[in-house]
């Protein structure tokens, strides 16, 4: 009588399976932060490259015109007549130097003011003005309105916009803002010097950078999530210094870097609608006036900047040594000509 031999089944037990799943989960949890850090490092490198290209474009513009571009262009017989008249911004002016000559030509930037272009050809140019330019967008910024600006940065109410019946149209977004220094008011003459590299409607030359080009901000970042970013197109109101004015494409260093929201409302004087910020952990990228790029940490020194009841950004004359102790490193990097020495942060 033959007895059949039972074949043993080879399989995992439930306990073994659960252990393997737990080990895989632990490995994934350990690996994920490293993957995220590597991705952010790559995004920051791309952001650095964006800033580098724009800084080089500004230098090429300087080689051509002997000055850096103005922050924006006003339209009208006088600057006072330019209220609410849309004007081209510095990033539109450097389009030929960032390999965007066809866009520059299609928009007639060199020949027609933005307000007149909107007034006469609004329907035709609107898709162009809403076109994303990859080099003007930080890859770390998760703009939920992409490729357009935040809803608070629309052009509604502008003279050309009203004439063309475009409503509250929004232009293409940009994360890169020019550095206007410390002052807030608009520039119609040299007495209103902001001490930054972009003085509103006036232009700065390399000879005006008395503190050294490696010690002066040229361009920095602003995020779209907390601080509403900006646009490469230009400004809606060249005469305004509020959230609907010239801060569509420029920033000052009165506001602390990456000003939190809360406790500061984004559109308050202490909020970041006027300042620099980014979604990079711990700081933001800046291009210096010599074309180099640096990551500036949130912990950079910022002082109260007040003397005898006055704010340091209210003074006009560079080199007033009474004010030197009130300036932090962040403030000094924003000013091209105050003559105050400092050590560049590592």
Could you explain the architecture of this structure?
By secondary structure, the chain is of the alpha+beta class. It contains six helices and eleven strands. The protein has helices at residues 14-65, 90-93, 101-106, 114-129, 159-164, 329-334, and strands at 87-88, 173-174, 176-179, 217-221, 230-231, 234-235, 250-251, 283-288, 293-297, 306-307, 310-311. Strands 7-3-4-8-9 form a five-stranded mixed sheet, covered by helices on one side. The protein has a two-stranded antiparallel ribbon with strand order 1-6. Strands 2-5 form a two-stranded antiparallel sheet. A hairpin with a 2-residue loop joins β10 and β11 (310-311). It is globular. It starts with 13 loop residues before the first helix and ends in a 12-residue tail after the last helix.
What are its keywords?
346 residues, alpha+beta, 5-stranded mixed sheet, 10% strand, globular
Helix content: 25-40%
Strand content: 5-15%
What is the H-and-E element order? Answer: HEHHHHEEEEEEEEEEH
Compute the average pLDDT: 88
Structural class: alpha+beta
Q: What's this model, at a glance?
A:
With 346 residues, this protein is α+β, with helices and mostly antiparallel strands. The chain has six helices and eleven strands.
């Amino acid at each position: 009588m033959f007895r059949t031999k039972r074949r043993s089944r080879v399989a995992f037990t439930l306990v073994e399976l659960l252990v393997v799943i737990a080990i895989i989960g632990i490995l994934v949890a350990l690996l994920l932060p490293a993957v995220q850090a590597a991705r952010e490092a790559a995004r920051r490198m791309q952001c650095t490259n964006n800033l580098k290209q724009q800084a080089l474009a500004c230098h090429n513009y300087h080689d051509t015109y002997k000055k850096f571009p103005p922050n924006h262009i006003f339209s009208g017989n006088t600057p006072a007549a330019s209220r609410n008249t849309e004007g081209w911004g510095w990033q539109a002016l450097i389009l030929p130097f960032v390999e965007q000559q066809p866009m520059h030509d299609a928009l007639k930037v060199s020949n027609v003011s933005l307000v007149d272009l909107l007034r006469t050809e609004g329907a035709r140019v609107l898709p162009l003005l809403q076109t994303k330019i990859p080099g003007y967008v930080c890859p770390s910024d998760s703009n939920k309105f992409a490729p357009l600006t935040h809803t608070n940065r629309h052009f509604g109410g502008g003279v050309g916009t009203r004439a063309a019946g475009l409503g509250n149209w929004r232009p293409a977004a940009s994360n890169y803002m020019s550095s206007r220094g410390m002052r807030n008011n608009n520039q119609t003459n040299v007495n209103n010097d902001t001490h930054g590299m972009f003085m509103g409607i006036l232009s700065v030359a390399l000879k005006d950078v008395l503190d050294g080009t490696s010690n002066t901000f040229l361009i920095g970042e602003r995020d779209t999530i907390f601080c509403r970013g900006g646009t490469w197109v230009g400004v809606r109101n060249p005469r305004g210094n509020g959230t609907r004015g010239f801060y569509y494409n420029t920033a000052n260093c009165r506001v602390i870097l990456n000003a939190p929201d809360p406790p500061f409302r984004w559109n308050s004087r202490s909020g970041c609608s006027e300042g620099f910020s980014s979604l990079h952990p711990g700081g933001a990228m800046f291009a210096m006036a010599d074309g180099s790029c640096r990551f500036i940490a949130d912990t950079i020194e910022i002082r109260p900047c007040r003397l005898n009841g006055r704010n340091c950004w209210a003074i006009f004359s560079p080199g007033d040594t009474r004010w030197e102790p009130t300036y932090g490193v962040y403030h000094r990097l924003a000013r091209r000509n105050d003559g105050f020495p400092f050590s560049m942060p590592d």
